[in-house]
Amino acid sequence: MLKSMLARLHQGHRTMAYPGAPPPALPERFRGRPLIDASRCPEGCRECVRACPTAAIAFDGQLRVDLGKCLFCTECSDACPAGAIGHGADYRLATRARGDLALAAGEPLRLAQALERKTLGLFGRSLKLRQVSAGGCNGCESDVNVLTTIGWDLGRFGIQFVASPRHADGLLLTGCVTGNMTLALEKAYAAVAPPKIVIAVGACAISGGPYAGHPQQRDGGTELLPIDLFIPGCPPHPLTILDGLLRLLDRLPPERSATG
Ligand code: SF4
Fold first, then answer.
1. Strands 85-87 and 34-36
2. Whose CA is nearest to atom 4 of ligand 1?
3. pLDDT for 216-240, tens place per residue?
4. With a threshold of 0.90, does the pTM exceed it?
5. Ligand 1 centroid to 74 CA: how many Å?
């Protein structure tokens, strides 16, 4: 016991200071959203469109990218002969509306705004979520789980995961929603007492990701449930997920809460 207490004293306080301080440094291989330099793409050769595994990038006179479908895989930038596509390092990607994830070249991302005032009054300082993995690969689930570790300590914001939807204020959905999980998801949603919120984490939960169009799944939860927050990525970095949750709950300090 004494040894344990000495070890804890030696380790000190290990939870990051973010969002009160700047976010932790991201690894060099971190990839933010695809950024398109339209001036380098006058011809529209469509090599990127052909290379994209999820039809997240399209050309209709100008290049457009749908972050809800994007796997952040760099196939588009690798395929572009003109170097017109790169990947930013901005971890902030969450939006309130599905349509806000579809961007034309150069268009700024409309980042998520806080919940409506009444709902914010209920959940702003205490939000209990039931996580439903509806056919996920465990990538998004793992990065959500990271937020509950000592370095991130999601509980300090009053956000906790609970075992039963009956104890929850909402669902956090991952996975493309397989046929086998559809009824379970619907039952979990029905078991949450209103008012309730739904958060979709990852390309699969938003659009089906690499499984989109497959008959054994539902292309994510967008058509099934009223989703309040879309957090794109494959999987999203824990910082991206935390940023989205804190935006939704209006818990970011002013210097980090810009919405566009
Ligand atoms: S990063 Fe990958 S999934 Fe996203 S637009 Fe480019 S090729 Fe498509």
1. antiparallel
2. 70
3. 999 999 999 999 999 999 999 999 9
4. yes
5. 6
